[in-house]
Amino acid sequence: MVVSVSQDGTVRLWDSATGAARATLMGHSHGVNTVAFSPDSKSIVSASNDRMVRYWDSVTGAQRGTLKGHLASVWGIAFSPDGRPLASASDDNTVRLWYANTGTSHGTLEGHKGPVYDVAFSPDGGLVAPASGDCTVRLWDSVTGASYGSLNGHSTLVLTVTFSPDGKLIASASGDKTVRLWDSMTGVQRGTLEGHSASVFVMAFLPDGKFIASISGDKTVRLWDSTAVALNATSECHFDSVYAVVFSPDGKLVASISKDGTVYIWGSATGAVRGKLVGHLDSVNAVAFSPDGKLVASASSDNTARLWYSTAGALRCTLKGHTSLLCAVAFSPDGKLVATASQDRTVRLWDSMTGALLYTLKGHLGIVWAIAFSPDGKLVASVSGDKTVRLWNSAMGVARGALEGHLNEVIAVTFSSDGKLIASASRDKTVKLWDSASGTSVQTIVADAAIKTLSFSKEGPYLETNRGILNIDFLSDFIPLLRKLYVEGHWVAQDTENILWLPPDYRETCAAVHNNILVLGHASGYVTFLEFDNS
């Protein structure tokens, strides 16, 4: 059976199989705004501009009662899961609770400062959540009428509200063109779903609770992944494009860098700002944490690198000596050395305690784009616009050899955990594996695009990259590892499946992943933290 309402004051029942009219329910004196079936489908309740809620038998169409009490139009109605309490939402700024079997009042929920457009019960029936023109959703105890506070964040009227099937999330949709997700236990905002260009007035969770469908005045229907929720609710951000985001070794902190010359430190579990590092006079191009996470190194277009205390945000020292902008920075495994790479074609090694320059490594004929230490700290690998990988003895600052074979600039490099292999990535869309002892090429992997970041996986014979996972057992294989998150095009992907479409404002300039948290940097200067449900 299908039920429809109209501004002609009628409710109509239709046969869903044949489309034939079953009955016309008449009684309202003004337009009918909404209708709901009882959980057992035996009753229908309708709400109208005549201030009335009317109760009908869904089989016979007979009116079973009229619920009177509202002082203005009634916009929303909802049954509790057991079908006994019924809630109605009105232009009179209130929600009324009724005993559905008798039609008597169970109480009035007052507190909103604007019209109430919709109302929803939690799956266990314990909470009532109304959506209001005062830009809030309020939570109430359905039995006692006690208020649990309001959910604040929308910038204009909230048009509709619903609970996830497991009751853990509340979703609200607004005239501000967004859908917001809230933790139903704490009231903490868990995410903002942006992309619609007009008011969102209808939404619903799919039965498994993993996705939300929303309908907007922009004439589109959007499907969102509710398991990926933004953690950061702060308005703080960089003033220009974000170049890189990097996790600390323990995954508890994230550093972001920008063209605006600042470094932000964030708590990865909350997305909250932990510190803002200010001092560079130009863009910050690279950032790295020390192995113990206590220091942060930043490399800038002002020709310097800076060392900071990650928790206090204080400057430790400034590394000066390069004659052109810096492209990369890295700590040795013991944290005693810092390596910097520059457009001046050199790599410099510094004492991380004193900031003293130890060695200048010369030999590249182009910009040095990236650097990496071997696990034992004895070697430094650098890659350049001259298409080569060069190896250096970190203790003596002398060259160990050049690895040649790429057909374009080499832009990323890393060592395997045992130090026996080196992986390098080039703009020629290949990744090469080298024997670190002999310098011979042992494998060439063809990717579908240039790889910008790479590291050896701890989960098997794979390279983790910004383009997914490369299998290093076989030539030319490009196989995303199961449950590994990465960004490809306008999608967040996991394994070979696209799981979350990124609206234009969420398109990334850089990304980093740690366990189930994905961090995105944006051209706007904002940093977004997304936590994915691994269940």
Automatic annotation (TrEMBL):
WD repeats lie at residues 1-24, 25-66, 67-108, 109-150, 151-183, 193-225, 235-266, 277-308, 319-360, 361-393, 403-444. Keywords: Repeat, WD repeat. Pfam families: WD40. This is Vegetative incompatibility protein HET-E-1. It comes from Trichoglossum hirsutum.
